[in-house]
Amino acid sequence: MQGTQEGLEDHNLYTESDIFDFKKLSKSVWDGKVIILSTIFVLLLLSVFYALKSQEWWTSKATVTEPTLNSIVSFSQLVKSYQPAFNILDADSVLVSSGKELDDLIDTKYIFDRFLLSYNSTEQKRKFLSSSEIFKEMLSKNEDSEVKLDPLTIERWLGKISSETKENKISKTYIAYLEFEAYTAEESNLLLREYVDFTNRNVAEIVFNELFSIVEVKKNELQQQLSFDLNLVQRKVEKEISLSEVAYEIAKGANISRPVSNLQLNELQSIALGTDALAAKIETLKSLKDFTSFSPNLERVSSRLDILNRELPSFDNFQQLQLFTYLQSPTLPLNRSEPNRKLIVILGSIVGLLLGLCIVILRAFRTGFKENK
After folding, report:
1. Which numeric CATH code is attached to 58-331?
2. Closest to 300 measured CA to CA, from 220, 215, 225
């Protein structure tokens, strides 16, 4: 019972001590209100100064998705004009395959993937920043020092070009959100438009060159096949000439000049033609220029090569090819992306308040320590 009473007395003692300390701390804070208000005011002024003087950044945005068939119709027609040369037929002239490499070139998803890959390419960004007159002019107006497009300056700006891709679950297509950050709203908008066009031209040229490469590879393949088939047919003709010459000599020795129908000669049946017909046959075979009658495949390969030998049109005719579709074209941003001046001022005020409280509390502890000592 006595122990319980002593415990209650200790508890009351600690409670009274805590209340006393809290009152003392509150009084110290109140007495130091001038210091707290001063630190808030100073930090507020500094944050306002920083918010006003820090570099503004504006971000222009655009939304794009896969190209429509209408936007690539001219290129699709060009690609399809080479399709017969890539078709593979069986012995019954039934289509076995139709050239997947050509189908990929005009697949809208494949084209859009190439566009996004190029847009996000670090090397592509470097080339653009090094060549853009708008970018150079912007730097000359906003940078204090003389403009130098050195690697360090370009590296600093690479992160200002960005994109985010999301999949549309309903249509199974991809949507890309493109961004370009610059010093002013007008500059960010101009640079985004220019970079999108720059990327589009670059990818269009890449796809066009891929078509040229695919055509050249197939052309070489068919030329080798034609050469092989032609060599095979020529050997067959040479063998036929040789057999006919032997038959001619036999027919000549047998004094058979005209066709005979009642001879049973198996492999040497051509003897029955007689020397006159055999001589004409040998002469015809030796002067033969077109071997397609001996091999139908020769005619097919030659026809496919004729298609591939057509001259490709100039890329200049396809520079306006648009490899994406705008869902939202680049527009002038209404609000700057950085700095957030309101947030900076609020954070500055909070830091000032905390700093002032720390100063006052530390002073109170130091004073109490000296009094106790």
Report:
1. 3.30.1890.10
2. 225
Query: Taking CA 111 as the corner, what is the angle to CA 105 and CA 112, rounded to the nearest 5 degrees?
Result: 165
The chain-wide mean pLDDT, for the chain, equals 78
Sign of the torsion formed by the C-alpha atoms of 240, 246, 250 and 251: positive
Specify the pairing of strand 58-65 against strand 325-331: antiparallel
Tokens 């002024």 appear where? 45
Please give the pLDDT value at position 37. 75
Residues across the chain: 373
Task: Report the percentage of the chain scoring pLDDT > 70.
Answer: 73
pTM for the full predicted model = 0.69
Under 8 Å between Cβ of 117 and 324: no
DSSP labels, 35-99: HHHHHHHHHHHHHHHHHHHSPPBEEEEEEEEPPPTGGGHHHHHHHHHTHHHH-EE-TT--EEE--
Query: Closest Cα to residue 195, out of 152, 134, 136, 150?
Result: 134
Cα–Cα distance measured from residue 1 to residue 13, given in angstroms and rounded to the nearest whole number: 19
d(CA 222, CA 215): 10
pLDDT digits 0-9 by tens, 337-372: 555 656 666 776 677 677 767 877 777 677 665 555
Each domain of the chain, given as residue ranges in start order, spans 58-331
Half-sphere exposure of residue 211, counting CA atoms within 13 Å on the CB side? 26
Please name which of 212, 195, 209, 213 lies closest in space to residue 115, comparing C-alpha atoms: 195
Which residues, 6 or more positions from 126, have their beta carbon under 8 angstroms from its beta carbon? Answer: 154, 158
At 195, phi and psi to the nearest 5? -70, -40
The C-alpha atoms of residue 338 and residue 159 are separated, in whole angstroms, by 14
Type of residue at 76: S
Strand locations in 133-197, DSSP E? Answer: 161-168, 173-182
Amino acid at residue number 221: E
pLDDT tens digits, 253-309: 777 777 766 655 554 556 667 778 878 888 888 877 777 777 778 888 888 888 888
